# Entry
Amino acid sequence: MTKPEIIGSSQSTYTRVVCMVCEEKGIEYVLTERMLRAPEVLAIHPFGKMPVLRHGDFALCESKFRPIPASRRSPSNGSRSSTR
Ligand SMILES: N[C@@H](CCC(=O)N[C@@H](CS)C(=O)NCC(=O)O)C(=O)O
# Structure
């Protein structure tokens, strides 16, 4: 399975939070360093805010929601896969 791709900047707190959640949950990811409003970011977030996430044909913006689908895709999520 391909790794989720976090598109953002390591200088961005929002980006680092998403990376930290993945690391805490043992989810392997790829961080693609991009500037604000880069074409790859604008393709997913209408205002070009970062980070955005791409995983196969699944794409998402807004970092607060990102750990939820990411954790559902993790084989190590155990009983935390239910929706709330
Ligand atoms: N609600 C967004 C906020 C993300 C955000 O504001 N990111 C900053 C970078 S740290 C940004 O893109 N700022 C550019 C702007 O607000 O135009 C999220 O949680 O992902």
